[in-house]
Every structure is written in C-alpha cells, then in structure tokens.
Amino acid sequence: MNQIIYPIVFLYGIVIGSFLNVCIYRIPKGEDVIRTRSHCMNCGHWLRWYELLPVVSYLFQRGRCRNCGEKLSLQYPMVELLNGILYVWIIWEKGITPEGILLCILSSTLLVISVIDLKTFTIPLGLNVMVFFLGLVRAGMELERATTHLIGMVVVSGFLWLLYWLTKGKGIGDGDIKLMIGAGTYLGVTNSIFALWLACFLGSILHGIRMKLFKASHQLAFGPYLSVGIIIAALYGQKLIQWYLQWMFP
Ligand SMILES: [Zn+2]
Predict the structure, then answer these.
(1) What is the pLDDT of residues 53-112, one digit of tens each?
(2) How far is the CA of 46 from the centre of ligand 1 (A)?
(3) Among 74, 63, 20, 68, residue whose Cα is nearest residue 44
(4) Distance (Å) from CA 25 to ligand 1 centroid
(5) What separation in Å is there between the alpha carbon of 47 and the centre of ligand 1?
C-alpha cells in the first residue's frame, strides 16, 4: 500500500508546486493566477503542455527557454521539488487524513509566502487571509479544543504587535503579525509559541551566517523562518513539548 501512495503524493506535490510558481510570480503583481496562459518571461513564447511538466521540463530543456534560450530561474524546479517533499513528509507523519491534507494546503501557502517574502520583504494580504481561513477550518475540526485555537489567534500576534508598536514598525513587519493571527488560530497556544521560538532561533543563527558569509542585508525576511516554525510545530509541537515537560519536571 505505502509503496504506491508516496510516489503519487510526491507527483501531486510537484504538480501543485508548479501552480505555486505561478502564484509566486503573479500575486505580487496583482495578476490573475488562473486564466492567463504561462509564457516565457523573456520572449513571451507561450508554453506548450510538454514545457509545463514540473521538474522534468526544466531538466529536459537544461534550464533554458526552448524558443529564445534565456536561462530559467532555478526557483521553478526548487519550489516544485520542495512542495513534493513537503507533501510526502506530511502524509508520512499524518497519513491521508483531513488533518494531513489541511496541513499540505497550509504548507503550500507558506511556501508561496516564504518565497514572496524573500524576494519583496512583504507578505500579500490575500495569502494571510488564506492562512487564517485554514486556521478556522482546523479549529472547526477540533471544536473540543476551541479555546486554545481562539487564544492562539492573539497570543503570538499580540506579542508581535506590541513589538511592532514599541519599535515603531522597525522590529517586525505587519505581514508577520497577520501571518501569526492565522497560524496561531491553526496551531493553538503552546504550538504557536513554540513556532515563534523556533523561528527566532533559526532566524538568529541562519541570518547571522548569511550576513557574515554572503553579505546579506540586515533586513530580515521573517516569513520563511516563521513558516518553518509553523510546519514543524504542526507536525511535532505536541510531542516535543511533552518530551520537554517530562524532562524538566520528571
Ligand atoms: Zn523565451
């Protein structure tokens, strides 16, 4: 059974990943993500079906446009592969369950948010609304824990808003606050605090390395770190917190 499921889940992941690339390119420009046909960014050449195969087309064309030879961004196959790997990882942990499928949708949304944030230092509002909607669905799936989802909505976002207010908007972006309203609703109280902690931990280490080695700017896109924190917290938060509490208070 499993041997059949994972390659199919991976295929779904990379096909949807190729749609995510369209979102990453078009949402910041306010373009339609459904109706416009895909074309080469350089020569306008309309892509045929065999030029739209995720990962495969990129490899087959050696990363260049078939018409004009312009180099295609490595972002396309990377996003497709990453989305495929994320789906396999999530279904591996959660199975093909409503929770697993919802988390796949959330992680795809977070992948789009992360790449757009890395490129533009902003998170489009529509994507944060999508995360909030997924948070509400998650809360609806476990109404017996409604309180934690409700408080989760404000616990981290409220803290970030305070930081925003104290630093007059220099310490944190308003997009990050809105992201944590939705993600907090999804995760509940302890998991959303854990997600923020993990994001700060990873952000301080990785961004420090990037500034030293690659002369990255001091401006930090926090969205990608929050996204990693959110996905890890959704997958393992409960387990890790229990393990930590048992270790602290045996
Ligand atoms: Zn071209």
Answers:
(1) 899 999 999 999 999 999 988 999 999 999 999 999 999 999 999 999 999 999 999 999
(2) 9
(3) 68
(4) 16
(5) 9
Contact indicator for 103, 15 with CB cutoff of 8 Å: no
DSSP string, 72-134: PPTHHHHHHHHHHHHHHHHHHHH-SSHHHHHHHHHHHHHHHHHHHHHHHS---HHHHHHHHHH
Residues in the chain: 250
By the 8 A CB rule, do 76 and 21 touch?
A: yes
Residue 185 has pLDDT above 90, yes or no: yes
Reported as a pLDDT band with limits 50, 70 and 90, residue 155 is: very high
Given a contact cutoff of 8 angstroms between Cβ atoms, the answer to whether 233 and 200 are in contact is: no
Residues whose CB is under 5 A from ligand 1 (ion)? 40, 42-43, 45, 65, 67-68, 70
| Through-space distance between the first and last CA atoms of the chain, rounded to whole angstroms | 40
Return the pLDDT at 248.
86
Nearest residue to 18 via CA among 60, 106, 77, 58:
77
pTM > 0.70:
yes
CA neighbor of 66 nearest in space, from 35, 39, 36: 39
Question: How many whole angstroms separate alpha carbon 186 and alpha carbon 160?
Answer: 17
